[in-house]
Each structure stands twice: as C-alpha cells, then as structure tokens.
Amino acid sequence: MGKDAEFFALSQDEQIVSLTQAAAAILHGYGISGSELECINYEFNATFKVTTDSAQIYVLRININSTRTAQNIMAEIEWVQYLQRTDGIHVATPIANHADQFITSFNHGESGRVLLAVMYSWLEGSEVGDEPSLIQLHQIGQTIALLHESAKDFQLTSRAKLPEFKDLLWGTQDFLFGERSVLESDDRELLLQASNYICRYTDELYEKSQSHIIHADLHGWNIISHESEIFIFDFDDCGIGLAAQDIAVALYYLDTPEQEVALLNGYKSVMALPEYSDIAMKALLLQRRLMLLNYLYETNNHEHRQMLPAYLAKTIERVSRFLVEVSESNNGTIQNQRS
C-alpha cells in the first residue's frame, strides 16, 4: 500500500491531525507562528480557521482532494481580486505569503502528495446553510447576477487557466461510465441515456449563449450573511461556463417553488435571465446530481462514501422521471410542429 492509500485509510480525525501539523508549517511562510488552528471543514478540502496572537483571523485552505492546478488556483485568486473592485459584490481578500505568492506548494509526507494551499481574510457572519430566508435568496439572486454581469469584462492573465464546462462531469475523472465504474449494467445504461440528453441540451445552450467565468458551486454553505449583506466564498470550483449552469447549481439546493422564485426574482432585478427551456434547466439540475454521484465514487471522505447506496437509489429515481419528462417534451414539440 502506497503512502497515499495509507493516509486515506486513516480515520478522519487522524487525517485532520496530520493536516493541522502541515497547516502550522505553511503559516511560517506567512510569518505566523504560535497561532490557534481549528479545522472548520474537512470534506473535499481541508479548511482551517487561523487566529493569530494579535487576534487577527484568517482562513487557510489546503487542497487535499482537489485536482486543481496552480494555474487554476491562480485564476481563482485573480477573479476574487477583480470582484473586490466590483460594486455590490462582497468577497474575502486573498493573502500573499512572505514570498509575495498567493499559492503555497508543499510536500505532505504522510500522503506522499505535493499539496497546494491558499489563505484568505476571515468573513464574519453565519453561513446561510440549507434554510435560507426568501429575503436572503433574493439577495443571493442579485449577487449571482452581478457576478455574471461583471464576468463579461473579466480576463485572465497568462499565469492563470480554467477548465470549460462543456462536458458532463466538468473535467473530473469519470467514475460513472469509465473503466473505474462499478455501476450495475442496468443502472449504468439508464444514467447513460440521461447523460446523452444532458450533453445535447448543454451543447444547444452553448450554441446560443456566451460563456464566461462562473462560480460553479453557489449554495448556502458557500454564502455568508452578515449585517444584511451577502458574502460569496469558496471559488475553488470556478471555471468557464454559462450563466444558466451557475443558476442551475444554485437552484439544485433549494426545496420549494417559493425559494426558486425568490432567487430568480433577485437575479431579474439586476439583469435578464439567460435563455433556457424548462427541459434544459431540468437537464442541468440532473447533471448536478450526476456530478455529485460521481464525486461520491471518487472521494476518500469516509462519511461521504457511506451516503452512496441511498444517493444512488434516489438518483436512479430522478433519472427515470427525467427520461419520462424528456419524452413528453419531445412529443409536445412534434405536436406543435404538426399543428
């Protein structure tokens, strides 16, 4: 067993201990020692709250599971810095280390990996979470629209690069249909049928829409509310995509039609919604679920892996319903063309 496998075979608490030690070493590069370190999130990446002796607070992110390159992270930094200069958008401030670099690369002996880390200023307030108010959703819709409006003038430097979100899994390794798939043949075939429709609708959207940088992970756990203001963070998944794709991600995490209306009305108060059909949006929503299912097969997070059986069963149910909706939509189109 290699170091990588040995590390992820450890309990989550043991992994956090190792990464906390790594975080302390990283902070020396920022001139910070003797600080209080608290792991506040360990799912896809490891995120630490850093409280210095002088009571300054930062957040340090170590990309332990991410396949993001240094160029990808540089693009994230450049966009966040750009958004800091954009009226109406509130984000954290990227922090450079003593070498005047925003990205720290280090060898993590326990996993045998070269890991990348970034640090941001701390955002006061509370995460919106999975129970946002309708007022908050209206504000979030406004903020998403401002992100999209400003993105049209944003340009990356030659140091930065981002993936384009035209494919089904947005450039991540395929655990659903590739060689590493462990799906039963019937389930695999059903998901493949749905994915073909998703790709078709996505291609159609790209043909008639302008792509630009998008956040790609807008949900309540990446949004903070403080003193009636909305702050966006965790730009680690950003890439080149469509406004409709960003909106679909945000809608995916909502539970009621009233919530959806509040978010979309907030968006429309700033700019017109991008053009998309009802069935195309359903395809984008299902795509989000397939991406999360793929993540559950990929991740080394023990807690998330335990979610797989129930999540797969629910996904099969939603895929089956989607295929019926596609059939009904196509029949409706044919009937309209004949009339």
From TrEMBL:
Gene Ontology biological-process entries = threonine biosynthetic process
Q: Which residues form the Aminoglycoside phosphotransferase domain?
A: 45-267
Q: What is the protein name given in its UniProt record?
A: Unannotated protein
What protein family is recorded? Answer: Belongs to the pseudomonas-type ThrB family.
Concerning InterPro entries, the annotation shows: Aminoglycoside_PTrfase (IPR002575), Kinase-like_dom_sf (IPR011009), Pseudomonas-type_ThrB (IPR050249)
**Which Gene Ontology molecular-function terms are recorded?**
homoserine kinase activity
Species, as recorded: freshwater metagenome
